[in-house]
């Protein structure tokens, strides 16, 4: 197995992320982009709002990416050989739109414990500072969960608009990726992304997250798939592997998973967001 190098793994441990890591070919990234644009054309609205989540349950091509051996080898280097796919999300920033992601920690509202899990951000298009790539606050994963202000800003691409205040932008690292490359980050690292000031779409397919089989959902119920190894804990419900794009059973499976995910994300909140 060719996973992360010793240097990459040390960077992850010290900084809380590793990037870039080569995973998909440019042709594979284009195939996924074509899949996105086909769905947008043939099923308008099917990737909007809460339906941006659990995309791998409605598309065999997206599901295949979650099982990509290059990605799984990198993940195994961090969380071990027993790997479950816990969820996926599309983050799309169209040219010159106002969408942004406030600085936050993934672990804040997701209810996955212990923190033996990792988020993988797959670049479907190039991601750079001009088009609003992610920025990481290195080393912040060594701290505890921080207070998040719930802003529910209409342009914020997060569920609650959850925001860690006063993050020094000049202390953050830009995560520049070519289409097909990935970054991996820790549940506690503070990260976010700015506006897309380019003339091109910035598309990220986020596997949020790969979890070790020992990780439980302490807020609600989660739908998973086995990616590698074994699951001797059986903490979670298992979802069906999709056999065709946007099939009836596939959409039912996605809706069921998203219903439970919404309960988790908005647990204790007096207000619901659009995601």
Please summarize what this structure is:
This protein has 275 residues and is α+β, with helices and mostly antiparallel strands. 24% of the residues lie in helices and 24% in strands. It is built from six helices and 16 strands.
Shape: globular
Known CATH architecture: Sandwich
Give the class from helix and strand content and strand pairing: alpha+beta
The number of domains is: 1
Tell me the span between the first and last alpha carbons. 37 Å
- The arrangement of helices and strands along the chain is HEHHHEEEHEEEEEEEEEEEEH
Radius of gyration: 17 Å
CATH topology: Jelly Rolls
Uncertain parts: none
Looking at this protein, list some descriptive labels.
275 residues, alpha+beta, Jelly Rolls, eight-stranded mixed beta sheet
Q: Can you walk me through this structure?
A:
The protein has 6 helices and 16 strands. The model has no long low-confidence stretch (mean pLDDT 96). It is of the alpha+beta class and 275 residues long. Strands 1, 2, 3, 6, 11, 13, 15 and 16 form an 8-stranded mixed β-sheet that branches. Strands 4-12-7-10 form a 4-stranded antiparallel β-sheet, with no helix packed on it. Strands 5-14 form a two-stranded antiparallel ribbon.
């Amino acid at each position: 197995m060719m996973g992360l190098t010793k240097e990459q793994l040390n960077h992850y441990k010290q900084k809380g992320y590793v990037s870039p890591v080569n995973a998909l070919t440019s042709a594979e990234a284009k195939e996924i982009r074509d899949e996105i644009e086909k769905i947008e054309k043939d099923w308008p609205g099917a990737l909007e709002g809460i339906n941006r989540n659990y995309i791998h349950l409605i598309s065999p091509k997206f599901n295949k990416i979650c099982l990509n051996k290059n990605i799984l080898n990198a993940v195994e280097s961090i969380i071990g050989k027993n790997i479950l796919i816990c969820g996926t999300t599309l983050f799309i920033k169209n040219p010159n739109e106002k969408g942004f992601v406030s600085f936050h920690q993934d672990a804040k509202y997701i209810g996955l414990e212990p923190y033996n899990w990792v988020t993988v951000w797959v670049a479907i298009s190039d991601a750079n500072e001009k088009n609003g790539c992610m920025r990481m606050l290195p080393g912040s994963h060594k701290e505890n969960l921080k207070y998040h202000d719930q802003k529910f800003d209409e342009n914020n691409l997060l569920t609650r608009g959850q925001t860690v205040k006063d993050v020094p932008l000049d202390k953050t690292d830009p995560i520049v990726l070519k289409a097909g490359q990935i970054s991996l980050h820790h549940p506690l690292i503070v990260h976010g992304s700015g506006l897309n000031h380019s003339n091109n779409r910035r598309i990220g397919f986020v596997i949020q997250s790969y979890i070790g089989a020992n990780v439980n959902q302490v807020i609600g119920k989660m739908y998973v798939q086995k990616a590698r190894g074994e699951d001797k804990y059986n903490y979670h419900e298992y979802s069906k592997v999709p056999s065709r794009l946007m099939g009836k059973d596939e959409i039912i499976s996605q809706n069921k998973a998203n219903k439970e995910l919404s309960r988790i994300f908005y647990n204790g909140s007096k207000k619901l967001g659009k995601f």
